[in-house]
Amino acid sequence: MKTIRPLILTLLALVLAACGKSGPASPPTATTPASAEPKKLSLFCWSEYVPQTIIDDFTKETGIKVSVENYSSNEEMLSKLLAGGGKYDLIQPSEYTIEALIKDGQLLPLDPGALTNLGNIAPEFRAMSFDLGNKYSVPYMAGFVGICVNTSKIKTPVQSFADVFVPANKGRIVVLDDAREIVSWALGSIKLGINDVTTENLALITPLLKKWLPLVKVYDSDSPKTSLKNGDVDIGVIWSGEAALLYAQDSKFAFILPDDGAHLFVDNMSIPKTASHPQNAHLFINYLLRADVSKRISDAFPYYNPNLAARQLLSTEQLANPASYPPAQKISVMQTFRDLGQLSATVDELVTQIKAKGK
Amino acid sequence: MPEPTRQSPTALGLDPRRASWKAWLLLAPLLVWLALFVLLPTILLIVTSFSNRDELGRVVYSFNWDNYRRCFDPTWLSIFWDSIVYALLATFICVLVGYPAAYTIGRASPANRRLLLTLVMVPFWTSFLIRTYAWISVLSQEGLVNSLLLSSHILPTPLSMMYTPFAIVLGLVYNYLPFMILPIYTSVEKLDNSLVEAAYDLGAGPLRAFSRVIIPLTRPGITAGALLVFVPAIAMYAITTLMGGGSNPTIGEVIQNQFTRARNQPFGAALGVLLMLLFLVCFFVLGRKKNSAHPV
Amino acid sequence: MTDSTLLGRAHFFRLPDGPKLVRWFCGSWTALVFAFLYLPIFLLVLFSFNQSKSGFVWEGFTLEWYDALFHNRVLLQAFGNSLLIGTISTACATFLGTLGAWLLYRYRFPAHRLMETFIFVPMIMPEILMGVSLLVLFVLFSLPLGYFSVIIAHITFTFPFVLIGMQARLEGMDPSLEEAALDLGATPSQAFFKVILPYLVPAIASGALLAFSLSLDDYIVTVFVTGAASQTLPLKVYGMVRVGLNPQLNALSALGIVLTMFLVFVSERLKQPTPGETL
Questions:
Q1: Are A217 and B247 in contact (CB under 8 A)?
Q2: Of A36, B149, B260, C279, which residue is most buried, by most CB within 10 angstroms?
Q3: Would you call A139 helix, strand, or coil by DSSP?
Q4: Residue to substitute from C133, C210, C258, C262, interface B, most B β-carbons within 10 A
Q5: Which residues, numbered 43 to 102 in chain B, qualify as contacts with chain C under a Cβ-Cβ cut-off of 8 Å?
Q6: For an interface test with C, which of B128, B186, B260 has the most C Cβ atoms less than 10 Å from its Cβ?
Q7: Rg from Cα positions in chain B
Q8: Which residues from chain A sit within 8 angstroms of residue C55, using beta carbons?
Q9: Number of structural domains found in chain C
Q10: Which residues of C96-114 are buried (b: 16+ CB within 10 A; e: fewer)?
């Protein structure tokens, strides 16, 4: 009897606690104290985009154990996230994917009170059209798509996408293996906006693509710098961060932002509404927003850092890299991608068709 | 210890036993597995292939033939055809390259046999991506072959080998060769030596003995190997993209794109179902040939 | 002494092809095939000692990458996951495949052909479709994505490979082997374990090897059915390779190769008196 009584009491207490917890008025919100959550965080991010040392240091500082899963395209992330079962606390979608996820009600509104370092972000990145005022997302890193030229091999000046796709460059071109990107360049070069993707406009650019794509030797979104570095191609339309790495190794690789349709992409941190550790996710976002931490991301991946405080910590060399930090007036006119929805399949089909026929 | 007979198994006319309840019990794990993890996913896939999708690419279950109708567009058919050609070429080269090696391994002493067999597999215990990237360091313009050719003045300008159909086929052959060698080895290993010797005794030369006795006796291995190479090679996409540079799209890449870029799972599923039907046809054709080839 | 070893001893390195020329051709051809298989491996090992972080130019000897590798907790953990998943799924796949091949060979079941066809579906299903359909299935069963889901997926796509190899071996088996054992008074299960199983050992060994290699190397199916905790080596490697070949990965491959070679040679030494066992 002596031993049973405390047991019953404990059980009762547990049952009461459970009832209180499952009461109707306590949905998981970001405002409950962080101590209520187990020290775990499940991060679903782009591969090789969040340096491991930063994750390790976060664990050291907070005791929160981070498990990381990677993806290599927004759609890959979407298909796993929307299927459920993965239980991710933090995802890293690009701008047009954020737009679609917000529209579908898939994201948890962020708690501004928990993001004390949000002020480090440059004002223009706090007013992005896909998520005005960072209600659902915080920019992680931004960048551009532009032209990278091996100037020791290609002597003619290159200013626009049309200059890349000339017969003289046949078999010497690498481009991103991304139908949406390719279509946006063609739209830009006939003076249309990168988001003016309609069936009629696609028909307009088809002849242009039929001229361009047979000249391409390599399609690679993952590591377009490899073929440039190995000398298998001499010119390419690639991510600015990749071009920055090439330039840092050898200044013969020039980066040009063409006037006809270069665009800005923004990768963000967001919390899915199904997250089981939203407070820890806020802690991690706020940690990434710290100037010293964000600076280390720039060291590893020299894209355009939206974190102004971090940019002040960068070396003059890093800031002088033309692929990482091009002139401000060029950036101010750039647009970001809007979500295409069902049309993305049409875009993919068009480009695949021309690719297959272009051999 | 029974003496090995010189008759082929079918010649003995041994009928398989009728299955007893014990046999059923033993087969149960396999059946459950097949039902849960093969049959059910296949049904899900077929259902998907007749469905629609929403803005975010989620499957909206419905019934229409649109996805299949789209599959027969000339674009996809020509990509299908190219993929078949690459896979056939890779299979053929794998047989040519792999057969003599498998034969030699199968005729070595038991200890050497196991050693050589393991040596065939060891490279494949590193990631196929790392192996494929290693080939880039051999074939690219600043790679091993070109620097050797240039420095020895055999060639004035570097050869362009990466990102060509040659590179694709080489990548496929390299990655699937062991899947050809293993089953041929298994066949060679159990090859009855006295049959071959009898061929010699009856005056057959090495070529004749090889084509009339050894090849027919090891045909099950060749068939199994061809299936093991051809089937995955046709749907492969990572190697073809890395080595081919993506300018020769394969059907595997197209299917992959429906899931990872185009947000069109139903169409990807429809292409996949057609691909599987093609494989089933191959499988039955090869299976029939195998059976009819037996009474030697 | 098992039957297979007797057979093996009987033609101990006796190529029945008569002329030396044929033997010479086969030998040198095999050597060339091995050179082809090992050329990239050799380069990987070489580059793992190269000071240059990228590119193929030799810049001097270093052990830096090995040091970095041993401190790369993420890769080491992923490697552990891969070994665990590979071992468990290989054991299950070998069991399912061996038993299945034998039962389908020995007994006649209703819907026999249909069963055989379904066994080959995982082999012919493009990996990405298998990944996606299994993901849908696991979500349907509300099975959380993790070790368990990955192991199920790996067993599903490896066991047919074991089974097909086993069938090739069984097709060439002398059916009177089992009859004779039964005539001599063995029970059916004794006949299976004492006669059939030893005969199947080479096929079991190569099947298990194949299954393990496939499991260890799989990226496409795993990526769909894994959770954040059960990340395997190929997933982590793929992420690293995407941004160009990292010397740490060269070091990893070199270590993997050396380690497996070492294990093979040790097991050869240990198992010298009892050939015919699994590797």
A1: yes
A2: B260
A3: strand
A4: C133
A5: 44-45, 48, 97-98, 100-101
A6: B186
A7: 24
A8: 229
A9: 1
A10: bbbbbbbbbbbbebeeeee
Residues making up chain A, counted from first to last: 359
Q: What's the mean per-residue pLDDT of chain C?
A: 82
On the question of pLDDT at A270 being above 50, the answer is: yes
Q: What are phi and psi of A288, to 5 degrees?
A: -65, -25
The answer to whether the CB atoms of A78 and B57 lie below 8 A apart is yes
CATH 3.40.190.10 fits A143-264+326-357, yes or no: yes
Of all residues in chain B, the one with the smallest CA distance to A354 is B75
- Report the number of distinct structural domains present in chain B: 1
- Residues in chain B with CB shorter than 8 Å from the CB of C106 are 16-17, 23
CATH of the domain at C192: 1.10.3720.10
Q: What is the mean pLDDT of residues A292-315?
A: 96
Cβ of B158 within 8 Å of Cβ of A231? The answer is yes
Look up residue A210 and give its two tokens. Answer: 């039929």
For residue C174, is it within any domain? yes
> How far apart are alpha carbons A234 and A217 in whole angstroms?
10
Neighbours of B192 (CB within 10 A): 19
CATH code for the domain of B276: 1.10.3720.10
pLDDT digits (tens, 9 = 90+) for B64-94: 999 999 999 888 999 999 899 999 999 999 9
pLDDT tens for residues B45-70?
999 999 999 888 888 999 999 999 99
pLDDT at res. B289:
60
**Does residue C118 contact residue B39 with C-beta atoms inside 8 Å?**
yes
Tokens encoding A319: 């800031």
Would you call B285 exposed, middle or buried from its count of C-beta atoms within 10 A (0-12, 13-18, 19+)?
Answer: exposed
Q: What is the dihedral of CA B24, B28, B32, B38, to 10 degrees?
A: -70
Q: Is B32 on the interface with C (CB under 8 A)?
A: no
- Rounded CA-CA distance A96/A102 in Å is 10
Please provide the average confidence, as pLDDT, over all residues in chain A.
88
Q: Which of A76, A82, A352 is closest, CB to CB, to B249?
A: A352
Interface with chain A: mutation pick from C242, C245, C248, C249, highest number of A CBs within 10 Å: C242
Nearest to A86 among C54, C74, C145 (CB): C145
Domain positions in chain A are: 35-142+266-319, 143-264+326-357
Q: Report the alpha-carbon distance of residue B137 to residue A16 in Å, rounded.
A: 66
pLDDT at B21 over 90: no
Quick one: what percent of chain A has pLDDT higher than 90?
72
Take residue B128 and report the two structure tokens written for it.
């196929």
Tokens of B45: 């896939």
Q: Which of B176, B191, B195 is nearest to B221 (CA)?
A: B191
The band of A320, judged by pLDDT with boundaries at 50, 70 and 90, is very high
**In B, which residues are within 8 Å of C47 by CB distance?**
137
d(CA A112, CA A110): 6
Closest-approach residue (CA) in chain C for B267:
C129
The answer to whether the CB atoms of A86 and C143 lie below 8 A apart is: no
Tell me if C33 and B177 make a contact (CB, 8 A cut-off).
yes
CA pseudo-torsion sign A53, A59, A62, A65: positive
- Assess contact for C30 and B101: CB atoms under 8 A: yes
Class of domain A35-142+266-319: alpha beta
Can you give the pLDDT at residue A63? 95
CA B44, B50, B51 angle in degrees (round to 5)? 85
Tell me, yes or no, if B41 comes closer than 8 A to chain C by beta carbon. Answer: yes
pLDDT at B281 over 90: no
Domain assignment present for residue B16? The answer is no
By mean pLDDT, which of A47-51, C88-92, C150-154, C261-265 is the weakest? Answer: C261-265
Contacts of C145 in chain A (CB under 8 A): 85-86
| Three-state secondary structure call for residue A46 | strand
